[in-house]
Design goal:
single chain; alpha+beta; Arc Repressor Mutant, subunit A; Alpha-Beta Plaits; 3-stranded antiparallel sheet
């Protein structure tokens, strides 16, 4: 079972942030109590959001310090990092009694897949093209089908009967399906198509049929919950006066929640999304709050972390292109 924060650990994290602005400290206490993050998943969020743009490598001791205000004790961090190394996301280099962890090539690719979707703007005008993967049951074993369904689901594909997966085609997703199929070793046993609905046929519309592949009610509920959770704390942040530690904690919880929603979101274009679809409002809130938190959160990161060369390097250029430019 993935490790979760215990109530005492959450309270300890809250006390450490209590010296900052009181309304934000109260919000952090409540957030960690109501939505205790899974340790390994939170480490993945922090690595992708904060460590990867700064070179992707960090001392284990620095990572432990960085995550302490979020309630992750040393044991939870060490266990999570060990599991990520076992799964091939990161690798360790020993320097005496110290351990430097860095992303592997496979880990870097995995982060690029996920974070390409997380920070990209909502889809704009859609030309009606669908991306379709045909995976006949006879061509894949049951375990292969489950892995394919999971990986394609994280990329916004809906699963339909008879081994058919589909999603609206977006420019920022070009090429990632091929990478997934090659990584799973099934590229020669499935068919990938780009297709558009034939006009003037009195058949069920493709958008109506495709929506059976997603639990859109759950996705919408998650977005509305996100708006309620983070809409309240946003009003308390005045960037020049923000406490760096609190800013990092809130930014991490913000992107952790947003990441988990985005990996289940089919990113439906406005032409076929349900009425009053909340995804655009959630994205706008996340972008605005992330921008406000950027400078103080980065200051905390710089103070808490080092790699094998000393201070973390300046963020890569792509960091500043997140959410359309921060």
């Amino acid at each position: 079972m993935p490790a979760r924060l215990t109530a005492p650990e959450a309270r300890s994290a809250s006390r450490r942030t209590g010296a900052g602005r009181a309304p934000i400290a109260r919000w952090i206490r409540a957030e960690l109590r109501r939505h205790p993050p899974r340790a390994k998943s939170l480490v993945v969020t922090v690595w992708g959001d904060a460590i990867a743009p700064h070179g992707g490598a960090v001392w284990l001791g620095s990572l432990i310090r960085l995550l302490a205000p979020l309630g992750l004790n040393e044991r939870l961090v060490r266990t999570s990092v060990y599991r990520l190394a076992q799964e091939g996301w990161i690798e360790a280099k020993q320097a005496g009694r110290r351990s430097l962890y860095r992303l592997t090539a496979a880990g870097q690719q995995h982060f690029e897949h996920a974070y390409r979707r997380i920070y990209a703007p909502p889809p704009g005008d859609w030309d009606g093209t669908w991306e379709i993967v045909l995976a006949r049951q006879a061509a894949l074993g049951s375990a292969e089908r489950e892995r394919l369904k999971r990986e394609l689901g994280w990329e916004g594909f809906g699963a339909l009967p008879s081994g058919l997966f589909m999603r609206p085609a977006h420019a920022h997703d070009v090429g990632n399906v091929g990478e997934i199929l090659r990584a799973l070793g099934v590229v020669q046993r499935v068919v990938v198509l780009r297709a558009r609905e034939a006009p003037a046929l009195e058949a069920r519309s493709l958008p109506e049929y495709a929506q059976d592949g997603w639990d859109l009610g759950r996705v919408a509920a998650d977005y509305r919950g996100f708006l309620r959770r983070f809409g309240g704390v946003a009003q308390h942040f005045d960037a020049p006066a923000a406490d760096p530690e609190q800013a990092f904690v809130v930014r991490t919880l913000l992107i952790h929640a947003f990441r988990r929603m985005m990996l289940h979101d089919p990113q439906l274009p406005s032409e076929i999304a349900p009425r009053d679809w909340p995804a655009t409002r959630a994205y706008a809130l996340c972008r605005e709050l992330y921008r406000r938190l950027q400078r103080p959160a980065e200051a905390y990161l710089a103070a808490a972390c080092e790699n094998g060369h000393g201070a973390l390097p300046a963020p890569a250029s792509y960091f500043y292109r997140r959410f359309g430019g921060i």
